């Protein structure tokens, strides 16, 4: 997904109920003398953007150009919502409705346990004037965006009239609409590309229990018919995501290793599906990505997001990462190294042509990896090899060499460079350890002034690309 995101910018418009999630954190050491209740001594307060804001946060973490449409009250909380959206880097296209209370949910936390929650909000449908104003803003902004995500928290913003107008207009101009639904009447989302109900929500909407594969298929089919969907989807928690496409049910299994907290996982699924589809992925590739993103999020405490780097790392730990993910550009490796530094990893760097891979190469690279946590290999490009080795080299193209090298267990990342030396790449990586062959003993090693230490590794006797080529020539 990283590669697709580099080729095309994702632009997504989010419509939904916005709110503030407020937390009051404290300790409880005694009971009130006035009533049998705890006395909580507040130590700190924290404020988060909630509701559809969780979807926004996930999209921002993916690097998406995010627009937000909603209705808030002409109150202090509404202003706070607008400021928090802007602070996240999203664009707020909000309509203010006089007299409406913007949702604020306050949770009192004592010793990390929730004691009570109290809400201040308006839950009635927004006014016809607000519906009209919001839809006009939607028409003004939609052409800039690729996909529309609707996050329904049943707080009155997403009226039947507004949903009908938004979905109909989106279909007219060829924009997919994805919905995280609420309630048991999914017909109000008619015409959406897909909905993302969980199993319980799907059971409420269809009216029957999902206890077998046949039940699942019937539920998917009923949802598709009821809401006139392009694709029917049901999220199945630890069992993954079920998809009905052309009368065939496909279940993409979950990839979570450990589940600590499912808070916000539904928002992550909606955001990641929208993100993948906006980049041109099909529904099957999109659900694979959504499962990975959800796997990262449920491994964290509280509502959380997953960055593309975290998803890539997570995918690698599951042995599901493709070889191409380990081949990086200069821009990509700079971001990757920064992330690795934050994780406390030590970085080893080496470089070479590695034209015809042999035992000597693999032994050398395996030794290099032993000097740290991560091995980054700078690979001479075809142009660079020709300048260094002659017009008949390389035997294998840079793409082939990079692919084979990145498949080695000891090599974490491969970066192709065009220069005669990797000095600029070494400056970018700032390795903890720089590794070269023992034939550099007594010579200046390019980049040794940058790396914290330089180590020389002895090659396996009798093994070289030149000797391999000579042997092939003699065999003709």
CATH superfamily of the largest domain: Ribokinase
Number of domains as seen in the coordinates: 2
Spatial separation of the terminal alpha carbons: 45 Å
Largest sheet: spatial strand order: 5-4-1-8-9-10
What helical percentage do the residues reach?
Answer: 25-40%
Silhouette: elongated
Tell me what the structure shows:
The longest helix is centred in the middle third of the chain and has 15 residues. With 476 residues, the chain is of the alpha/beta class. The chain starts with a helix and ends with a helix. The strands form four sheets. A six-stranded parallel β-sheet has the order 5-4-1-8-9-10, with helices on both faces. A six-stranded parallel β-sheet has the order 14-17-16-15-18-19, with helices on both faces. It is 37% helix and 26% strand. It is an enzyme of class 2 (transferase). Its EC number is 2.7.1.167, 2.7.7.70. In the C-terminal section; belongs to the cytidylyltransferase family. InterPro entries: Bifunc_HldE, Cyt_trans-like, PfkB_dom, RfaE_dom_I, RfaE_dom_II, Ribokinase-like, Rossmann-like_a/b/a_fold.
Offer a quick outline of the entry.
Pfam families: CTP_transf_like, PfkB. The chain has 476 residues and is an alpha/beta fold.
Topology (elements, then pairings):
Elements: H1 2-7, E1 11-16, E2 18-31, E3 38-51, H2 52-61, E4 65-73, H3 76-88, E5 91-97, E6 103-110, E7 113-120, H4 128-141, E8 147-151, H5 160-172, E9 176-180, E10 194-195, H6 199-206, H7 213-227, E11 232-235, E12 241-245, E13 248-252, H8 265-278, H9 283-297, H10 308-317, E14 327-328, H11 330-342, E15 347-352, H12 359-369, E16 374-380, H13 382-389, H14 398-406, E17 413-417, H15 423-429, E18 433-437, E19 453-457, H16 465-475
Parallel strand pairs: 1-4, 1-8, 2-6, 4-5, 8-9, 9-10, 14-17, 15-16, 15-18, 16-17, 18-19
Antiparallel strand pairs: 2-3, 6-7, 11-12, 12-13
Helix pairs in contact: 2-8, 4-5, 6-7, 8-9, 9-10
């Amino acid at each position: 997904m990283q590669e697709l995101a580099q080729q095309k910018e994702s632009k997504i418009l989010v419509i939904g109920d916005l709110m503030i999630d407020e937390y009051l954190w404290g300790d409880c050491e005694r009971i009130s003398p006035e009533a049998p209740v705890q006395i909580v001594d507040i130590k700190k307060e924290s404020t988060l953007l909630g509701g559809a804001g969780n979807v926004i946060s996930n999209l921002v973490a993916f690097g998406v150009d995010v627009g937000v449409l909603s209705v808030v009250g002409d109150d202090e909380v509404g202003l706070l919502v607008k400021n928090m959206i802007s602070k996240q880097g999203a664009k707020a296209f909000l309509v203010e409705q006089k007299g409406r209370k913007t949702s604020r949910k306050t949770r009192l936390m004592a010793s990390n346990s929730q004691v009570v929650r109290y809400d201040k909000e308006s839950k009635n449908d927004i006014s016809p004037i607000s519906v009209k104003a919001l839809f006009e803003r939607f028409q003004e902004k939609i052409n800039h965006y690729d996909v529309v995500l609707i996050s329904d928290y049943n707080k009155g913003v997403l009226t039947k009239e507004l949903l009908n107008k938004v979905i109909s207009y989106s279909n007219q101009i060829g924009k997919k609409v994805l919905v995280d639904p609420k309630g048991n009447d999914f017909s109000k989302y008619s015409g959406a590309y897909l909905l993302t109900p969980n199993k319980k929500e799907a059971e409420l909407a269809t009216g029957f229990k999902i206890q077998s594969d046949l039940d699942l298929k019937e539920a998917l089919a009923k949802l598709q018919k009821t809401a006139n969907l392009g694709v029917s989807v049901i999220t199945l928690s630890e069992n993954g995501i079920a998809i009905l496409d052309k009368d065939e049910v496909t279940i993409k299994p979950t990839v979570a290793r450990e589940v600590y907290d499912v808070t916000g996982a539904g928002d992550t699924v909606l955001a990641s599906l929208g993100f993948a589809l906006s980049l041109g992925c099909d529904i099957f590739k999109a659900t694979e990505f959504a499962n990975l993103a959800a796997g990262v999020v449920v491994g964290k405490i509280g509502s959380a997001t997953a960055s593309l780097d975290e998803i890539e790392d997570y995918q690698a730990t599951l042995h599901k990462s493709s070889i191409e993910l380990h081949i990086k550009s200069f821009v990509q490796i700079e971001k990757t190294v920064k992330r690795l530094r934050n994780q406390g990893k030590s970085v080893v760097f080496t470089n070479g042509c590695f034209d015809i891979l042999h035992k000597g190469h693999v032994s050398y690279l395996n030794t290099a990896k032993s000097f740290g946590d991560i091995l980054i290999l700078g690979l001479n490009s075809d142009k660079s090899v020709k300048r260094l080795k002659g017009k008949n080299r390389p035997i294998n193209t840079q793409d082939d060499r990079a692919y084979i090298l990145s498949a080695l267990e000891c090599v974490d990342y491969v970066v192709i460079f065009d220069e005669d030396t990797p000095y600029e790449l070494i400056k970018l990586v700032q390795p903890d350890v720089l590794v070269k062959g023992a034939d550099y003993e007594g010579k200046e090693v390019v980049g040794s002034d940058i790396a914290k230490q330089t180590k020389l590794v002895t090659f396996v006797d009798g093994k070289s690309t030149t000797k391999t080529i000579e042997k092939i020539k003699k065999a003709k």
